[in-house]
Here is the input.
Amino acid sequence: MPSAQPGGRRGWRVLRMVLGGLLLLWAALWLADRIWPLPLPKDDLARVVLAEDGTPLWRFADANGVWRYPVRTDEVSPYYLDALLTYEDRWFYSHPGVNPMALVRAAWQNLTGGRVLSGGSTLSMQVARLLDPHSRTWHGKLRQLWRTAQLEWHLSKQQILTLYLNRAPFGGTLQGVAAASWAYLGKSPQHLTHAEAALLAVLPQAPSRLRPDRHAARAQAAR
Here is the structure.
């Protein structure tokens, strides 16, 4: 009977090479994460003085003139969260930051449509772009993917969603759903109706073109 030892040795060598390669990859990613750390925002939110019932008495922009009020996920209407996740990223809690199916679908739609119809970006990818803006080049896309991976490594899904709620652009100097809700609707984001939630969910896709205070018809159509 022929000996199985040579084949067994080859198998162990292949296994060691695979494990060694994975270890080197992990070490390279760890080092890159140290060299290019995730640019998490500082405490630069605008300040709001509230009455006992939660109504804002005074509002202040941040040092750059941006209106951005702090808000948590439990301080936002579930209608808005449902609309946001359904419209932007229904698999947000399942994917590792990048949704391959969404990217393939977006590439096919753009190819067959002859123009950019869909970007395929997840909420995590959008937050990565908000934290570290980049050019729309292959290099910029790779940079976005790297920042997305860092977000998923360092933060929970709830923390990533909170960053989006506070950083998404809503036109002009408004950032975050709370500032947009008070500015455009005159109410807390906790009390949004279905229609108002739908409006604020689509607005960050084209905040200048869909501003309800300037382009009411476009905003209504998008809603």
Notes: The first strand starts at residue 47 and ends at 50. The radius of gyration is 22 Å. The chain is about 55% helix and 5% strand. The mean pLDDT is 82.
